[in-house]
Amino acid sequence: MAKGRVAILEDRCKSCGLCVAACPMKVLRISERINEKGYRPAEQYREGCVACKICALTCPDVAIEVFRMEEA
C-alpha cells in the first residue's frame, strides 16, 4: 500500500475542519499555530496517510496537496 504525505497551504487554510472530519485515517488536526490571516491551519500530525486525497477533495479553499510515496 502506498504511503502519503499531506501538505497544507497554510495561507489558504481557514480552519474549517472539513479535512479533519473527512480523513479516514485520522492523521489531520487543527494546529495550534496561527497563520498570517489569523486562522489555525490544519496539519498532518502523525504518519498513516494512505494518499486517498479525500482531504484535498473536501477542502473548499484548495489548501491541501497530497503526495504519494511508493514503498520500496
TrEMBL record:
Extract the PROSITE patterns matched here: 4FE4S_FER_1, 4FE4S_FER_2
Extract the GO molecular function terms from the UniProt entry: iron-sulfur cluster binding; metal ion binding
Q: Where is the signal peptide?
A: none
**Which Pfam family is an annotated match for this chain, by its short name?**
Fer4_7
Tell me which residues make up the 4Fe-4S ferredoxin-type domain.
4-33, 39-69
Q: Which InterPro entries match?
A: 4Fe4S_Fe-S-bd, 4Fe4S_Fe_S_CS
Keywords of the record, alphabetical order, are: Iron, Iron-sulfur, Metal-binding
Q: What protein name applies here?
A: Ferredoxin family protein
Q: Which organism is it from?
A: Aminithiophilus ramosus
